[in-house]
Design a protein that fits this description.
It is built from eight helices and 19 strands. It has helices spanning 42-50, 92-102, 107-120, 136-148, 166-183, 194-200, 218-223, 228-233, and strands spanning 4-13, 16-26, 31-35, 57-62, 65-66, 77-80, 154-158, 186-191, 203-208, 211-216, 240-249, 252-256, 273-278, 284-285, 291-301, 304-311, 314-321, 332-336, 343-346. It binds adenosine-5'-triphosphate (ATP). One of its GO terms (cellular component) is ATP-binding cassette (ABC) transporter complex, substrate-binding subunit-containing.
């Protein structure tokens, strides 16, 4: 187990800043996901932690020791990439044993640890098969096992599930979590998939355009996004944002949302242009609610129904249990959002108010 500290960490490629001033501490045995869209600097950050890239400025420390000039092989990190690197001519068993043999671990200990890892990752039935004949799903599972079996103090995974199919990805999410619970490594996991980050990580670091925007537990970033980018990137679908103006109402200030109605009372001062945010799953059908939008499309996905709503230029989505009654496509839908669920953002800065 190792604590990772990144302080004022940055990387420039010529004039282009891939990562600007990252400050982030990842605790001993913590599972942190670096989450953001393609090109936001996740892999650049990861490659600096691994020692494959040298920082342009700032420091990386493992347990207080500066790592800037320590080569990758001496950092004690395990690294799994999107494209598995497996020795295809070897058996599954030999692939799993490879790193342990290189470390000079005894034969009996290798047998025990390979067996344990194969059991954990459901590779036991194929231990004596050549890797060459195995599916992409199994090869990626093997790549994870081969890195994990040497029990590195720090385990880095860069989009390890992006090439495997959806059903297998769901299985691997719980297996990776189980792997970390068992070995208690410090884990850094790069992904652009918010569901992976939300389901596995202790904390999520949301990044965009080379900047760290917010760090928090999955619930913290879901409930209290610092800006509209995080609000919409987290959640599926993301947070609704309706443009409005704070005006005086009978029972205090409300947000005038044009033909979509108005919000409940807010404490924000009058006159400001704001974005009224609420999660699709926090929409309550309510015949007396202050909000009204037309149902453009009804999307039924098993236990849930997604209503696509509009009111002029304003668009929103509502997620309901499939049992919940609602008007038909083309009709008006009246609803409310609890005051405690509503979030306000400044239209100009896009930051949370
Ligand atoms: P992806 O998921 O697409 O890999 P990412 O968030 O991991 O995205 P990075 O790979 O860290 O992003 O890249 C961040 C930015 O830095 C990108 O715009 C990329 O084109 C640029 N970049 C990365 N490596 C280099 C390099 N060696 N030279 C120049 N630019 C680079």
């Amino acid at each position: 187990m190792t604590e990772i500290v990144m302080q004022n960490l940055g990387k420039d490629f010529g004039d282009f800043t891939a990562l600007a001033n990252m400050d982030l501490t990842i605790g001993d045995g913590e599972f942190v996901a670096l989450l953001g869209p393609s090109g936001c600097g996740k892999s650049t950050t990861m490659n600096m932690i691994a020692g494959m890239l040298t920082p342009s400025h700032g420091d990386i420390r493992f347990d207080g020791r500066n790592m800037n000039d320590v080569p990758m092989a001496k950092r004690g990190v395990g690294f799994v990439f999107q494209n598995y690197a497996i020795f295809t001519h070897m058996t599954v068993r030999d692939n799993l044993a490879y790193g342990l043999k290189a470390q000079g671990v005894s034969k009996s200990e290798i047998t025990r640890r390979v067996g344990e890892m194969a059991e954990l990752l459901q590779l036991s039935p194929m231990l004596d098969r050549k890797a060459a004949g195995l599916s992409v799903n199994i090869l990626q599972r093997l790549a994870i096992g081969r890195s994990a079996v040497v029990e590195p103090a720090i385990f880095l995974l860069d989009e390890p599930l992006s090439n495997v199919d959806a059903a297998f990805r769901a299985v691997m999410r719980s297996e990776l979590k189980a792997l970390q619970r068992q070995f208690k490594q410090t884990m850094v996991y790069v992904t652009h998939d918010q569901l992976e980050a939300m389901t596995m990580a202790d904390r999520i670091a949301v990044m965009d355009h080379g900047k760290l925007l917010q760090v928090g537990t999955p619930l913290e970033v879901y409930n209290n996004p610092v800006d509209t980018f995080v609000a919409q990137f987290i959640g599926a679908p993301g947070m609704n944002l309706l443009s409005g103006t704070v005006t005086g109402g009978d029972t205090g200030n409300v947000i005038d949302l044009g033909s979509a109605g108005h919000s409940g009372p807010v404490t924000t001062g009058q006159g400001g242009d704001v974005l009224f945010g609420f999660r699709p799953e926090q929409v309550h059908p309510d015949p007396n609610g202050p909000l009204e939008m037309r149902i453009v499309t009804v999307e039924r996905i098993g236990a849930r129904t997604i209503l696509h709503l509009d009111a002029g230029a304003r668009r929103a989505k509502a997620v309901l249990d499939s049992e919940t009654p609602h008007p038909d496509q083309g009709e008006l839908f009246r609803f409310s959002v609890a005051a405690s669920d509503a979030r306000l953002f400044d239209s100009a800065t896009q930051g949370a108010l």
